[in-house]
Amino acid sequence: MGSYFLKEEVNVLGKLGCAACLLGSVLLVLHAPGDKDIQTIDEILDLAIQPFFLIYCACVTMIASYVIWKIAPTQGRTNPLVYISICSSVGSISVMSVKAFGIAVKLTAGGDNQFTHPSTYVFLSVLVITTLTQMNYLNKAMGQFPASLVNAMYYVGFTTCTLSASIIFYQGLNTSNWTSILSMICGFLLNFTGISLLTLSKTATSSPSTKGSTRVACMYPIDAPQGQYEHVRTSSVEIEHARGRTGSGTQPGAAS
């Protein structure tokens, strides 16, 4: 849509990558298992402090911190995966936090006040920090790369990380239907293929051709027999020829 409404240039690889990402995401959304029914904030707290989810949160924190401090300052403006990886991984934790905080608000509205539990404020703090981080680097990605590229890659990365976090958080797929499982696997493969095509399209667009680079235009003063002509735009080959003509024109006068 960015190529049509925002007049952005998207080559054939980019369009194929967007189509693959869209198809893969549709498969994931249609065949993703549903969440477990949680009624209290204590239930979701018990799930959040499980060892595997704590390990996932620790890995996301370490990887995101390393990318933010080491990789983003040097490669963030040339590789869209740098900013997108930060948004997607941190965003998966924000989804889990907003689910927990949403349950707390729902129960509080129903008469059971959940704001007396410290865990409610913990989930709220995590939600604010992850959301601010996610929006910050998403805006940076939108400012450096085309919207069509960023939207497709972010949609795929965010969906993949969120589903992975949900599987770890709820300790399983919550389904035994092999058709849904195979469709999810196909969706993941299509998403990875689409990301690869989008990255290749960005690389092909950002690397200009080097053909015809032997003729270098520059500004250089030239001493001609008729006088000095400064700031003439010409090529390096023509400059050498002009110097040769100038030297040959001044030698007879010096000999006489």
How does this model look, in words?
- This protein has 256 residues and is mostly helical.
- The protein has 2 domains: 10-206, no CATH class; 217-255.
- It has 9 helices and 2 strands, in the order ααααααααββα.
- A two-stranded antiparallel sheet has the order 1-2.
- Strand 1 and strand 2 (227-235) form a beta hairpin.
- Helix 5 crosses helix 7 (147-169).
- The longest helix is centred in the middle third of the chain and has 30 residues, at 80-109.
- It is globular and about 95 Å long.
- Mean pLDDT is 76; it is low at 209-237.
Which structural class fits the helix and strand makeup?
mainly alpha
What is the chain-wise order of helices and strands?
A: HHHHHHHHEEH
User: How many domains?
Assistant: 2
What is the strand content? 5-15%
Report, as a whole number of angstroms, the end-to-end distance: 75 Å
Question: Low-confidence parts lasting 5 or more residues at pLDDT below 50?
Answer: 209-237
C-alpha Rg, in Å? Answer: 29 Å
Please count the helical segments.
9
Biggest sheet strand order reads 1-2
Number of strands: 2
Shape: globular
Q: If you average the pLDDT, what whole number results?
A: 76
Give the % helix.
over 70%
